[in-house]
Amino acid sequence: MSNWYQLPIQTVIEKLNTNIEHGLDNQEAAQRLEQYGPNELIEKGVKSPWLILWDQFTETMVVILIIAAIISAILGDFKDAIAIVAIVIINAFLGFRQEYQAEQAMAALKKLAVPTVRVRRGGHVQEIPASTLVPGDIVLLESGNRVPADSRLVESVNLRTQEAALTGESEPVSKHIKPLDKGDLPLAERDNTIYMGTTVTYGRGLAVVTETGMDSELGDIAEMMQSAGQEDTPLQRRLDQLGKALAVAALILVGIVFVLGLFRGEDPEILFLTSISIAVAAVPEGLPAVVTIALALGARRMLKRESLIRKLPAVEALGSVTVICSDKTGTLTENRMTVTVLDVAEHEIDLTSDQPSRRSGFKAAPCTDSRPDEDQAEYLRHYPALTLLLAGGALCNDALLECEEGRPEAYHIVGDPTEGALVVAAARMGLRKGALEEVFPRVAEEPFDSDRKRMTTVHKTPDNESQIPDSFEAVWDWQGWGVTENLDFMAFTKGAVDGLLKISDRVWVEDHIEPMSDAWCERIEKSNARLAEQGMRVLGVGCRALDQAPSNQEQEQESVEENLIFVGLVGMIDPARPEVKDAVQTCRDAGIRPMMITGDHPLTAGYIARELGFMTNGKVVTGLELQAMSPETLRETIETNNVYARVSPEHKLRIVEALQDKGQIVAMTGDGVNDAPALKR
């Protein structure tokens, strides 16, 4: 069954006949392993190398060439026979090599398999080979683990998983254990379920395995990929048609010559040899070689333009393409959550802007010097709330920025990608997290959880004003912060905007603090809604000065997460690659229709599609809508709609097939597991 996400936990446990605390007995697990098979992806219908080689000699043109070589040898023309055989062998070698490599596609999926996994069996926690997992096993997960099988969560402590390769969702998904009785939901919205091959990026959890091996969502993709037929290229189809036409023409010609010769009383043996000679002459034995050489030259020219062609027929096929279907996440976008908008009272700052006054700051590499340069410091002094927003986002944060020595642009994020985006945004303005933590060391925290939807950290402030960074000068006048004694500590809170507004009684405006009024609340809510409509993930940041550090977590939550100063909003998205917009326009100028097919959220897909020029009629078609369409309706829909979101691998395959049914020559590009079936088709 596929509706585990709709059921309460207890119902799931009963249907799988297992126990959360005890797990399965070893004997029961062995019986289920025999019943369901190993938790592995199985290669089905894979051609053996010998069959692939045999296929190279059974194409119409090749068969004609082989017959021509045999007849030439019989007639004593060994030079022609050897030349034809050489052409056939070269052609077979190239075809075998290309097809054999294509048959290795399953190896990429198998790399997502997990070698070992921790489970509860017989009342004990054991580490077992993931291939021996069965439905009903209780799996323990923590940050950094790869999910070994499709499972329903029974415990989630701030658990987030990265599912981009499988669902197209560009940011980690927060997971919970509540049932989702909302009808048929796409994979990306089943927030109480985790899938084989995805990765835990944050938190920990406990899950009961529901599907394994080929019954998992990854197994479904493997099944579709192996059953999806491959289209011949236009050139291959035309050559095949030419071969058949030549064969028919040669037979007709041989028949006519032979019959007319008999009527004239010619020697039948001479007639036979003459007819065969004519048939051999009609076969263009040099054609496959000429085509191969021409395609190879084309591939070489394309390689000089940084396009690598793996299959020679694709050179001609690319020139015939009428539609390009593209995935979004990681293909059209950078597959890296990035802060693009900062919104503080009275100001919205676009970090993607190329305005000269901002270029030096917001275009800086995140791994440059740890202190703001003069331009950055001046900008931060001009917008004190911006300093607090960036610094608060970096300090109230568990992610780290690892930089490569000597390469300021080369870095990677350790931790949650969303938190990493905040650290990078601050670093680009010279507010490096490491340097900030030296000045404001963390002394207490309240971790993020899915109920509060926020996180708070408390930091010790400098004892000596000379230690205060220049960029903080404009916010270091503590009058009006509500401090009754010496200012020793500062708390930063980040999280969902609506929840943050409920615990904020003030707002930072320009260089001072004002009471939180209905007007300010409305303005913040409108900004939040507008950014969300653009497909962005929006976080709010608040702060508060403290006389003393909280003594325990419970006190921290009660006394710190209240009476906050609302600082601003941070909008982040997986941004479009800068070169894509021009590429899309180039396709249109060449008469090629670009289409976006993604598993990501419709709002995000729509925003990126409009930005890059994919959108033609303003509509984003969802996977649920596609699911309800008949083949005829789908073929009509693809005529006018270029953007599809929240689609599954099956939907991507259907769209490609529908376009091919309409006579289109389709190219597909994507780097996710969910693109594999459509890519092969």
Helix and strand arrangement:
Blueprint: H1 9-16, H2 26-36, H3 49-56, H4 60-74, H5 78-102, H6 106-110, E1 116-121, E2 124-129, E3 138-142, E4 150-162, H7 164-167, E5 173-174, E6 193-194, E7 199-211, H8 217-227, H9 234-263, H10 268-282, H11 287-304, H12 313-320, E8 323-326, E9 338-344, E10 347-350, H13 356-362, H14 374-382, H15 384-395, E11 400-404, E12 407-414, H16 417-428, H17 433-439, E13 442-449, E14 454-460, E15 489-495, H18 497-502, E16 504-509, E17 512-515, H19 518-533, E18 537-546, H20 553-560, E19 564-573, H21 580-589, E20 593-597, H22 602-612, E21 621-622, H23 623-627, H24 631-640, E22 643-645, H25 649-661, E23 666-669, H26 676-680
Parallel strand pairs: 8-20, 8-23, 16-19, 20-22, 21-22
Antiparallel strand pairs: 1-2, 1-3, 3-7, 4-5, 4-6, 4-7, 9-10, 9-19, 11-12, 13-14, 14-15, 15-18, 16-17, 18-19
Helix pairs in contact: 3-5, 4-5, 4-10, 9-10, 15-16, 24-25
Portion of residues in beta strands equals: 15-25%
Given as residue ranges, the uncertain stretches (5+ residues, pLDDT < 50) are: 354-360
Return the structural class: alpha+beta
**Number of distinct beta strands:** 23
Radius of gyration: 32 Å
Mean of residue pLDDT values? 81
Largest sheet, strands/sense/barrel: 9 strands, mixed
Shape from CA axes? elongated
Residue share in helices? 40-55%
Alpha-carbon distance between the two ends = 28 Å
Quaternary state, please? single chain
Count of alpha and pi helical runs: 26
